[in-house]
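User: Hi! I'm working on a homework problem where we have to compare a predicted structure to a textbook description. Could you give me the structure for the chain below?
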Amino acid sequence: MKQIIVLILSFCMCVIVTGSPVFAKELSNYELTRKINELEQKVGIRDFSGQWTDRISISGLLEVEGVYEDQDNRDGTGEDSSDLNLATVELGIDAEFNDYVSGHVVFLWEEDDTEPVDLDEGYITLTPSPNWPVYFSAGKLYVPFGNFETHMVSDPLTLEMGETRESAAVAGLEQNGFYASAYAFNGDVDKFNDDSHVDNFGASAGYRMETQNFSLDTGVGYINNILDSDFLSDEGIDEVDDYVGGVTAHAVFSSGPVTFIGEYMTALDDTGYTDNGNIMEMEEISAWNLELGYGFTLAEKDTTLAVGWQGTDDAGGFLAEDRYICAVSMDMFDHTSVALEYFHEEYENDDENDAVTAQLAFAF
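Assistant: Happy to help. Predicted structure tokens:
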């Protein structure tokens, strides 16, 4: 219908232009095209008839890291080690051929983890109208549970505990700073003696705002089975007595050069589970991340210094009980940064771990 309206208006304009010698002289082809484009924008139609490069965008990330680690185990088995590796290669492709459908694909390679290349994300997003604030996405994606923002090189413990990538369907909206979403998927961790169904679900909501003096992003989230997260399911959790819900809350506040990040995540109950055939018990696992960052200029380069405290409770040795961490990063050139990070970890069984990581990153 919108295309018909545009054609009618365009035809009327052409009649006016060609039917009047005055207008024909004063209104060039360029002006005619510009006015037609204005009409298209008013009725919500964009021109996608250009080259394919105008409809497809490519992004990427390369991270090279050098790591020194010193493990001090209570049983005396600790050791120190060092390594140099290409930690991350990420290639993203986004395609948008009309106002209603877009596609997003990310290929990921991580040394000693995703070899060969892994399809990290691949999903389709539908919007009923360019002027509507709602959307629907389906495919392989990270469900909107948790924020996981950080200044550090290492992933925060909240991400380790709660990040969940599944083939899922997500419906959401964003308007006037408010955002909300709901999602469903068939998880990898099922109940004992239960059939496999699309019975995992969750929801999230939050608010973002930005002024000249400060910015704020705060939100909450719920998932009906937090034990289906990538990390916990990869640790050998196969089946559970019952699904264990999880909740998360975050706040990211910036004012001038100072940024504060706070996030908390917890399971809502204990549960029994099988780990490679062994019956185990897990209490109400939780995790948090608190960071304070300060941005400044050093040698005419944008630099950030950050300190943080991360931790878990009742993680059963899966994750560190306490992590004290600091990092400094600098934008050396356009799209290129360097970072240096140190952390000290303490575990429930009194094991300790210290690590220093240097990173060179290139994003485009």
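For your comparison, note the following. The two ends are 39 Å apart (CA to CA). Residues 52-90+146-363 form a domain with the Porin fold (CATH 2.40.160.10). Good luck with the assignment!
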